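S1.2 Input.
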Amino acid sequence: TDAVDRLITTADAHDRIMVLEVMGRYAGWIALYTAIAGGVDACLIPEIPYDLEIVAKKIKKDKANGKDYSLVIVS
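S1.3 Output.
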């Protein structure tokens, strides 16, 4: 969570999209717990199929609503 807090601060300061990769090739519990604790924008874990287009649309929607940064956690 410390890394997430620092990445959020950096992403906000530089208006960037940050991707944090954590351990868990076949199990996403570390990523999920980190995402919940850090309040990230998207969490991609192997147990739940995801579409990158949907993630991109969510980030674009946040940008249109005035949020200049995003943080995505990937397992």
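S1.4 Remarks. The first helix runs from residue 2 to 14.
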